[in-house]
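Lab meeting notes turned into a lecture example. A postdoc, R.K., suggested we walk through two folding results consecutively so the class can see how the record format repeats. The first protein's sequence and structure tokens come next.
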Amino acid sequence: MKLPAALRSARPVEPSPRWSVRVLWLVAIWAASVLALGVVGWLLRLVLLS
């Protein structure tokens, strides 16, 4: 009875780290894309102003 209880307690804990890691990856990718767009826009402004 102890093993199933341990497995039951461990099961809900596993998806939360995986979910948080996926969210962190999504946030990192979103932040990188926003920064890339900002840099590209800044470079375009420099080219247009020059």
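The second example is placed directly after the first for contrast:
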Amino acid sequence: MSNLSKRVVARVVLGLGLAVAGCASVGIGVTSAGDIRRNPASFEGKEVTVRGTVNEVTKLPIVEVKSYTVLDSTGEIRVTTRGAAPAKGERVVVRGVVSSTAIVGGHSLGMHLSERERSAAY
């Protein structure tokens, strides 16, 4: 393969990578908080991406885990993190795993999203 062909392939791969990485910031591949709350059993243990505004932040000084809620147009979902919590009002895209303490009769008790990755929303 010539140097020109290698450069073209490298640019195409880079472009595709950037396009895929940017999908969540524009809403592609994003699950609404309302969908998760309406049917928690179908999301249990699954990785999802949510996008919205940080509505409430909870930090307990003796516990490593912090939590915050992400509000979108359909509702809100609690997110737990071991990292620094975002500021209230910040727009975020969060990828994480949905988990509940228990699901009784299709209703989730203690449902939250365990944060794996977070970035700023555009």
